[in-house]
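Repro:
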Amino acid sequence: MKNIIYILLLTVALTSCDDFLDVKPVGKLIPSKIQEFDKLLNNSNLYQWDYLDNNTGCNLAMLGDNYEYSENIFASELKISNPNVDRLMAYKFNRPYNDPKNPDYFWDWGIYRAAYYYNNVIDGVEDLLSQDENLGKSILAQAKAGRAVNYLNACMVYGPAYIPGGANNTKTIPFRTVSAATEGNPDLSTTQEVFDLVEEDLLASLIDIPDFSTNIRYNKITVKAALAYFYMLKGDFPKMLTYADEAWNDALADKGGIEGIIYDFNKFAYFDNGAVGAPGEDPETVWNLQYDGSPDGTFKLVGNIENLLYRRSASIPRAYVSQEFVSLFSDNDLRKQLFLLWSTGYADVFGGNDGIVKKYYRADKMGKGNTTGFSYPELLLMRAEAYARNGQDGNALIDLNKLREYRYETGTAALIGLSGDILLNEIINERRRELPTPSYKRFLDLKRYAAYDEGKAWAKTTMVHRLMTYTAVPAGDTPLEPVPSGIEYTAPINSEFFILPISNPVLLLNPDWGIPLAPEGYNPS
């Protein structure tokens, strides 16, 4: 099945649509009804592989600053020939991160498999509009919105960040809009061309998009959030504010207030599942999280109330959150109390032992409650950022404090008197604390800050990674904070190190793009 999909997406192949569509509930028949195309938008391939590798990690997270490797973990991962060694190579900025002769999971399993579903729906429904025009237009709007955001993120991963006022003429990805297997791929689109097409699709989808849908599909609120996200990446902050404000107000009206879209972390607590231990001793196995006294774990599911658009998040890598990330949390931040816990560090047969370390368990404890799509807290912070970038500091501070009510201990004083870059820096830090740490979103943020915020406190020009030395201590002793070893890796953010190359198998099948193949003989070390 993987080979069928790969050939279908990336070549002018003669594989039949019957073969590809055997994943549909209706069997191996090509859909003949609008309702059958509608069901394709519920397919798990549209939300299960959002920049994930075959072991559900994400090397883009390892290009950023949320994680760090210990010397022991790094050495062990290399010795056992981990199939996702690309995460280690990303941390070292050792391009190409993946073996160039192998398929690219992001490209194959995520971007262009999803694009094929969206394009199949669009092509099929357009031919069947006479069956039910209103339903058909609604389905088309959802598919175009999904395709747009899919390609927007791909453009930012496989190309440079958008430069406001710049030429943006670097060729990035093919913006494929047809589903026919016999239709060749178009030429690579430039950053500007992708952004123009994404904007066109998102704005057009607003006309017929339904008001409501499940959170794996697009609706009016989701499309407005997507437009705010698009204009954020583009650096068009007045439009970012327009759509973030509309989306947030619509969400409040739809869910009956903020309690319907944001959890109060003061109501989360751990309970013992019967094993011996205390919070922090073995949070992976001993302690379970519950909300408001209920152990049913609804917050761990796709139906988590904070998930506006669900896209599966990466699993926690075999690494620790960075000391810089840890320093972002104050003691009264409930995310620190609930998820940043002391636990047993890495030890292996090669003799390495990291002792007792701090691990960040939010991705584990929240499970499918994490999303790399859009969450309501992210939407609120997008509005806060847009307010701040448009000089409306008072409104920005209100939004920031509103989220803090649900993330900090009850009684924590509201922030006052912040303005300008100091306020914006705090909003951006809050965004970093709130987004899923193993995902690609911090990677995209780093790229956009480097593109249009040069010189600001939050805008890094160079990423520095270090291997850290963790010292094991006798049981009962106070754990020691790690210290940097002498091994350091650096790379400019506004460079090829923060752009993924297209893999050789894709380039071999698309020689018209004129991109030379990467040399063979990949030897990660």
